[in-house]
Design goal:
This protein is mainly α. It is 85% helix and 0% strand.
């Protein structure tokens, strides 16, 4: 069914956008999930909404306004996360709420036509231009290069952060580097797949992969493959049933999430029984 839809250029662009987003979110999301920073990435994603409102209200280019706001939010949240992990959730929650509120208010105050907020929440993956695909492809290359270059350090941090510091691993630098990369990725991906789908792709596939993979690299590969599967199946479902593509992909991913939980329950039950 999806094969027939690929005769249309917009469907091919949507599929490529989903695959690129799968690579970016699968790799970065695994590092986020393994190090228990999901709330931090969610805070950056929601705070970036303030950049959207800022760009619309002042007439800035979308990327300039959103990128600046997201980078500031990422740096502030990461600094608090590293300095006071036990209280970081409160500060992140405040920035999360304030960022979204600023975005909504500025969009309300923007004279003339203002875009539908739902387009930023669920994206418009079926309307992805070729130029955005090139940007996403470049971001994929950067993400894979940095992950490969710092892989051993990331592995050490994910295993034992304090031991990594004692071994001379630049823990603070890596945290800031990859959370800034997360912020940049969110800015590029959010305009394609939407805010909610970005968070779903950063969390659901890596969470499932973490349970079954035996290494950080294996978890990243599995997360990318699962994310690509969810994107492809979600697009096929949206095309077949005339549904919103972003929401369809999220529901497919959620289905995979609950299936993994049920499988875990069944496996644990069988182990205890036998």
């Amino acid at each position: 069914m999806l094969i027939d839809a690929l005769h249309f250029e917009f469907m091919r662009n949507a599929l490529f956008a989903g695959l690129f987003a799968s690579v970016i979110c699968g790799v970065l999301g695994t590092f986020i999930v393994v190090n228990r920073m999901v709330f931090l990435s969610g805070g950056i994603a929601h705070a970036s909404y303030g950049g959207i409102g800022l760009a619309l209200f002042f007439g800035f280019p979308f990327l300039a306004g959103t990128m600046g706001f997201s980078l500031i939010a990422a740096i502030l949240m990461t600094a608090v996360f590293l300095k006071a992990k036990d209280r970081a959730d409160t500060f992140i929650g405040v920035l999360w709420a304030v960022g979204m509120a600023i975005g909504v208010i500025l969009i309300d105050l923007t004279p003339g036509y203002t875009p539908d907020l739902m387009s930023y929440l669920f994206g418009s993956i079926l309307a992805v231009p070729v130029s955005d695909l090139w940007w996403m492809a470049g971001l994929c290359v950067i993400t894979l290069f940095l992950t490969g270059y710092f892989y051993r350090d990331m592995l050490a941090i994910s295993y034992d952060e304090e031991f990594a510091r004692l071994r001379g691993v630049p823990v603070t630098l890596i945290y800031f580097l990859f959370m800034v990369l997360v912020a940049i990725s969110i800015v590029f991906v959010i305009r394609v797949v939407g805010l909610i789908l970005v968070i779903a792709l950063l969390t659901i596939p890596p969470y499932i992969a973490e349970k079954y993979a035996r290494s950080l690299g294996g978890a990243m590969v599995m997360a990318v493959l699962l994310s690509a599967l969810f994107n492809t199946c979600g697009l096929a479902l949206a095309y077949a049933k005339n549904l919103t593509s972003g929401a369809a992909i999220i529901m497919v991913a959620a289905g995979g999430f609950f299936i993994s939980i049920v499988l875990d329950f069944i496996i644990d039950f069988l182990r205890k029984t036998w």
